[in-house]
Design brief:
- The structure is a homotetramer.
- The first copy, chain A, has a single domain, classed as Aldolase class I (TIM Barrel, Alpha-Beta Barrel).
- By secondary structure, chain A is of the alpha/beta class.
- In chain A, helix 1 runs antiparallel to helix 12 and helix 9 packs across helix 10.
- Chain A is built from twelve helices and twelve strands.
- Chain A has an eight-stranded parallel beta sheet with strand order 4-11-10-9-8-7-6-5.
- The interface between A and B is large, with 30 and 43 residues.
Chain lengths: ~350, ~350, ~350, ~350
Amino acid sequence: MVDQVARLEAAARERLDPAAYAYYAAGSDEEISVGEAAAAWRSWRLLPRVLRDVSHVDTSLSLAGTPLATPVLAGPSALHGMADPQGEVATARGVAGAGSLLVLSSRSSRPIEQVAEVAGPWWYQVYCLRDREVTGEQVRRAARAGARALVLTVDAPYVAPKPRVRDPLPLGAHGDEALANIPGVRAQDREQDPSIDARVIGQLAEQSGLPVLVKGVLRADDAVRCVQAGAAGVIVSNHGGRQLDRAVASAHALPAVAEAVGDRVPVLVDGGIRTGTDVLVALALGARAVLLGRPVLWALAVGGSGGVGALLESYRSQLSTAMALAGAVNLAEVTADLVAGAGRSRG
Amino acid sequence: MVDQVARLEAAARERLDPAAYAYYAAGSDEEISVGEAAAAWRSWRLLPRVLRDVSHVDTSLSLAGTPLATPVLAGPSALHGMADPQGEVATARGVAGAGSLLVLSSRSSRPIEQVAEVAGPWWYQVYCLRDREVTGEQVRRAARAGARALVLTVDAPYVAPKPRVRDPLPLGAHGDEALANIPGVRAQDREQDPSIDARVIGQLAEQSGLPVLVKGVLRADDAVRCVQAGAAGVIVSNHGGRQLDRAVASAHALPAVAEAVGDRVPVLVDGGIRTGTDVLVALALGARAVLLGRPVLWALAVGGSGGVGALLESYRSQLSTAMALAGAVNLAEVTADLVAGAGRSRG
Amino acid sequence: MVDQVARLEAAARERLDPAAYAYYAAGSDEEISVGEAAAAWRSWRLLPRVLRDVSHVDTSLSLAGTPLATPVLAGPSALHGMADPQGEVATARGVAGAGSLLVLSSRSSRPIEQVAEVAGPWWYQVYCLRDREVTGEQVRRAARAGARALVLTVDAPYVAPKPRVRDPLPLGAHGDEALANIPGVRAQDREQDPSIDARVIGQLAEQSGLPVLVKGVLRADDAVRCVQAGAAGVIVSNHGGRQLDRAVASAHALPAVAEAVGDRVPVLVDGGIRTGTDVLVALALGARAVLLGRPVLWALAVGGSGGVGALLESYRSQLSTAMALAGAVNLAEVTADLVAGAGRSRG
Amino acid sequence: MVDQVARLEAAARERLDPAAYAYYAAGSDEEISVGEAAAAWRSWRLLPRVLRDVSHVDTSLSLAGTPLATPVLAGPSALHGMADPQGEVATARGVAGAGSLLVLSSRSSRPIEQVAEVAGPWWYQVYCLRDREVTGEQVRRAARAGARALVLTVDAPYVAPKPRVRDPLPLGAHGDEALANIPGVRAQDREQDPSIDARVIGQLAEQSGLPVLVKGVLRADDAVRCVQAGAAGVIVSNHGGRQLDRAVASAHALPAVAEAVGDRVPVLVDGGIRTGTDVLVALALGARAVLLGRPVLWALAVGGSGGVGALLESYRSQLSTAMALAGAVNLAEVTADLVAGAGRSRG
């Protein structure tokens, strides 16, 4: 059966400008990583517990000090203005209504402050640019606007080629600021700095006064280095298959990273999470929460802020049902013994 | 080659009301578990023994004190009245004629007593409902009618969504009592109680005076807990792929459960068993008997009670042939050394 | 690319009576074993040796005291008269011309003596029948006619159902004697005796004065029992997928059997061997020689005795080339280190 | 997505004489090895490092004393004259322009000296022929013309049959010398000598005064023997799937060979390398450099010397990008921890 996100994507594709759809959907090079992300989650099987009292299931959590109704967050993605005239403002409304958290991309179509005005809890995604003053100003601006944390993307020292992205993007309203932020048309000072190392984590924390989570980690040793350098969290991600093609699926990278990090900081994950059952698997493999990328864009294109809210609530509801059927009544009970590799049992 | 059950299903589909077919065939969510159940049995290969005296092959057994001609039982499934005007009465006749045992669903289209009147040995399947008095009355009524054991289904604290089930069911004759029993239209007191734990096993045994087998177990630890709580048997099952989607295939869950339970109580299994050779594999992996779900419904729809009897006899006959060709003359000789994972030998 | 045997089968199918083709091609039940035999050999990869002197490659061997030019033998198959008017007489001529050995089926279309007259070295395949006097007479008759060994088939205590075999067979000339030998139409005294055990090996050797190889062994423990009971050789086989369906592929069963038997007696193998490279794999996995089943029938149907000879020579030539390219100059140098599972190396 | 080489091959096929295309594209026997070479590289996944300074990425190396801009070399392939009127002269120009190295086939369409005149650094590929004087003359001629090393091909003691190669080759200009060099039409003294062993390595080194790399090694033990016999390098190869069919993919053979050889001499690899990411994988698995076979022919057919240069530069550029995104700034940093088997992580 076609999953909910595939249906949503098909509907979104009909509404979106083809160039916008291509930009959102594209992966790098041969699109191997983008093509296998979802299947990696589905390769896990579940070993549900029975005869537990599951009359009350609770999907809430506290993440970096912020209480949330659901571990399904809206991850950072660029240029929501191509999907909805309100852009990230609409996204933020939908996310807030669902009791979730928005990670606002630094390549937002809308100014930070406009988004912040309507948002619930939000974090700010940032690249470390060649001109550190620009980056410093970005993070201070985000902090002033109310961001509760920074998410530093580290898997894009350069922008990987994406064969599907060929045509000019329909940037529309607020295109000018957006334009300044996107790859290919930006000025030199807007380019990511390929020379950064782990010390940048502390520098950004100091500049912004905010905790810094590091996004784009696939290796246990890198995760440990980030934690030692002061990261407030680690996000396992291969950038939606848009950077190094053939990078391991986040579903396969997650267990080793989570084991290495342990309880020191939360580990989050994104990439190919298509249903509430995928979320259950991710949590069982060690994630504290998950981020959605393209699904939010498809929901936004199809249903605006209401669509985004409904999407997040659908994931939460599916997660809740799956937890009940698996015998877990809160997120702490979603543990590794619930999952087994496809075709094998370890119950 | 298409297997016997696939042919039977195709024939049944032509005769059934589309809504009834969808109800019987449906799995939950994306139907991943329902889609891989049969393939899981077929992934095992056989290592037949030769030069044994196989002039007499015996498929009989004693199960929970009841002598049976075959280890292939008719498992519990709801609403046989949609497949045959006689409903479970017809099913019971066919099962009895084949020397097998019927597990009568508490969501039967026909009253318990009418079925009991024509049945051979039978067990009664039950959910523990929110209103324990209703459940207590059900099991006492079943005991009075001659049930030899209860089968407590524990993998459905809630009913999972099944996208294929959309239309009203053609409940037909006896629809009123049936209607009271089926999900979605039942009253609150007919809902499963999601708060039960293993103590319910002893409570039901006490209320009914019957042994209680627990159905829907996929984990070794849960199986041990059930045995410790007094279960008279454990049935490895993922509810035909109708509850937690992506639950491990019963063919993959069985070995660990059987090993953990050992000889304390019989372990049974259902899900995707399509031929007598599947039965041989299941027994070799530790099951004492198997239950058929949908195949019984297809046979009932196509051939009524005679169809059900022929189906069970076909499984028994295939099992007998496979045993002879594998060098096993009785069920005790169907041991783990007869099977190997696909593509590997351990002879 | 389509392999040589697939092409030959297609050509044979055009010439054969459809019922004869179905009889030859059929497997039992769902035809799982028959469908995966060839792929099992192809799942192995080769680790060729280089910088060896391969200017002379020798495929000859001595098998049970008989010198042969090639380790590729013609295995026993029934009723060659449906493929060629000369039946097994034609087959025997082709085999002899290729310097190979014929295992004559006891279900031959032609009398033993007519075949023996034109044959090179040959063995006689036999079932142990319910009437032991009939079997005794068969093996003495074969010994008198010049058979050098018996091949006792042990994987057919009963004949498995083959859904493809429905129509009467076109038995043609010599049909009367053939008819007496084939399953389904034979008298009770012609049925295999399902009660035999390993003692029959010694009994047949005594009755015939011939060494007895046992065909149809897939388990190491059975192979050891056969050797202990006096077998002069063991043939790993699942009867061309015509007996217990889902029996392990002979390519997967061979290594464990060969290891258990060691150097005590030769281990042979059949089933799905389609090219000389398959032969190389089989020898590397521990076989001393291989037997061809259906390929001989296809060659016979297409080219008569010349076709059979060309087929065997083609296998031998391919084997010789593969040995040269793999750095093995005689069969003793075809050792286990030449093969690795698909996708892995152990060089 | 279709990879760059597949697109190039399709374009080349339109321009090439069908017999020439078949000759280039063909594999031996059933073309199993040729069919799985590329997929073997793609079966590996990457574990990129983050937060490293990747502002400068360097793909240069020194190979057997020769400084090169890229580890992607043009491997030996026969008869470039069928792809371009200038043949290997055009190839050599393209290779030199890309800062790479040409391994000139002894089955060149053009005389050694004409190629040498325009080439950058080049090695000379040689077979050891039955007439050793011919071989001696070949290698001395190559040394005089400026070859920096010899590449001795050892996996072709005989030429394997290639079913696709049926028609006469369009040898065109310089066909006479070429004709003398190609299999099937050459004189006896031009045939490879199947009797050679590892001593030939030292003999060729002595005759030519050049270091000798051995090409066609798939086993660790053979690699060690070559090194002990004086080889200056080992090239892991299955001859593009044109010799022993079902020989293990070079991607699977490489790790064991590289581990056995260690740092004693460089290990190179060819076969199925289609992108810069494949190169990254090969280097991570232990190769010091890679060789391209058919891709060079397709590029030559489509774009002449410019096409060859662009192809090599494309590989180098892709490798550089992949290194940056994987956190490796020079070839020494491309280590085994960057790769993991598909579906698994070892980060």
